[in-house]
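Encoded backbone
================
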Amino acid sequence: MPDERVIATTRELSKVASRFNEAVEEGPSGLEGFSDIEKAQFQAQLPRALDELKGAEKNPAVMSTPAHQLASLMQSMVAQNATGAEPLRTGQLEAKFDTDDWFGWAKTLWHMLKDAKNKFPWQDPPAQPEHVSQFGKTCSVALFSDWATGLYGAPLIANRIEQTPGTDIVMHLGDTYYSGTEGEFTDRFTKFWPKTPGALHRALNGNHEMYSGGRPYWAALQQKPFEQRSSCFAYENEDWVIVGLDTAYQEFDLYQKDGHDEAAWVISIVNSASEGDKKVVLFSHHQPFSLLDKQGPNLRSKLEEAILKPGKVFAWYWGHEHECVIYDRHPVWGIYGRCVGHAGMPEFRKIDLDPVDTPQFRRIAGKGDVPGALVLDGPNPYIHGEETKFTPHGYVQLRFDGPRLFETYLNPDGSELISNQELKP
């Protein structure tokens, strides 16, 4: 089995991209190679991918990946087919890649990119929320996102969830790195997934799953412990409806094509819940708003007038950003917004505040209609030698207790940062 410590760095990918460019320029055309159009497209995309890689990588000894398809596919290809590896000071291994057939590997990368257009088949979820035994009057949810690196605090988070008694639902909000290939699902996702017998296991779709077309993600969902019929879902009990959205099949959006309409589905469910005096919690990979990253215009435009402005959504949890951010209640929508994408992918420290010695939440001001927030800051002890430059990892435990909802924010080792915080109507 490949070593999950192997990471693909920008400096190695720069060398690989240069050799690819030379090989394609000098290589055959037509059936044996690239058409003239493909050659131009490939050579145009390589420097863009490198720019994205350089922008995302803050430290060559620490795993990073941009939100860019070709760049992520290059990382997957090099990491999974490394011809050597050199130790990094953080404990990871830098993938080294060499070959006598640079043209052949360039074609492999191009076919990976083209093959990713062949997405897994979209499956509509049931029209109405389902009843499952795990989502009863009381329910404990282990919630984490952007976790599937197999590195840093991610394995420890899985172990702590396994060791926590009474967990009813285990939910990941998406992203398996680098591009959700079959090998990465085996080595960075399935290998470390929390083994919690009797729990309902659910995994949402992320943009990195879709960079390879999402087929390995879909294959994983068909197996135990998931046996998940769709990449989106809804469950209800006497007081609550929880809805998992797929915001990656149609990137940073809700899927709408060929008679499928994810936005209409969730709007219908939320309206029915509101009529029945049930509170609604949404879960997704992408964010509806942010103080630290780009906004989600498509999510907002499709849901704002129908369910957000009318105050029909109680809370929304998302990942994508590799941060933990507890937003104040939205001034217009009234929802509790939470970014919990801090379970596995390192995030370089962003906020302009003096460093602190221990993980803790710190206040930042809102902007426009995006409310102020508490941002998890402090050292990350799982990134050896670079602890103070990256923000902490962790996860969240939600507890539904009748009509009440409580949050507990935890470090990877299970120690609590915020305990039993109630979200009040």
Notes: The longest strand covers residues 138-144. The CA atoms of residues 69 and 211 lie 5 Å apart. The chain has two domains: 6-115, 138-422.
